[in-house]
Each structure stands twice: as structure tokens, then as C-alpha cells.
Structure prediction request, 142 residues.
Amino acid sequence: MSWFNYIGLIIVVLIMIPNIIYGIKKPAPDNKNISKPIVILENIGRYSCMFFIVFNIPYSWFNFFLNNGLTIYIVVNSLLVVSYEVSFIIYWNKNGLAKALVLSIIPSLIFLFSGIMVLSIPLICASILFAICHIYISVKNT
Prediction:
């Protein structure tokens, strides 16, 4: 893998498709009960994750540390993306804590797993920030 991770781009596109459709069909939750700094930190984490999963900044990532790292990366991320898509279908017209947790934990795992697999320091840091804020906001909005 070089500076451009086309698999990461595919992952981002696939996890954004249901979000875009949902955003068009359903009203966005208001974050009235969430402090503004948390929302800002979540967005910083989100967009940083999307950037760093696609673009590997030189000297900040160390490639796969396992012999079959690329295969593991593709298989596990494929399973996570499929589970995210299926969860979106299952929870489409439902609300509640289960929906909030599932649909916030899976993308967090995708970014964190990807960062760990390629040893990308920026992606690991961004995914931790994103996970904490995204899960918190999702649960508070239920």
C-alpha cells in the first residue's frame, strides 16, 4: 500500500451511502442536549478518519505488521461494512439505544481496526476521538 489507500476510499464510500440516503429521507437529530465542543470534536474526528483511511501520510504509518495483513484488513473490514449496512436496514424505522450503539460502534471499529492494521498513528488517534464523541452523541440523542 502506498500513500493512497483505494480500499480505504471504498470503505468510506460504502459507509457513507446509507448515511446520505438516511439524511435525505429522515430529519437530522438536533444536538440541543450536546455541548458544542463535543460536536466539533466529533466532526474533527470523523473527517480526520475519512482522510487518514484514504491517504497515508509519509512517516506516520508503518504498513501491515502481519504477513497476511492485507487479506485480514480486507476480510475484517468487509465484514464490518456489511454488518453496518445490514444494521442500517434493520434499524431504519426504529429508534432506541440499540440503534444508537450499533450504528456508532461499527464505524468506530472500522476506523480503529484500519488504523491498527496499517499502524497509522493519525488514524488511530482520530478514530479514538471519533469513537468517544460519536458514541456519546448517539446515545445522548436517543
Helices lie at 6-25, 36-54, 69-90, 97-117, 121-140.
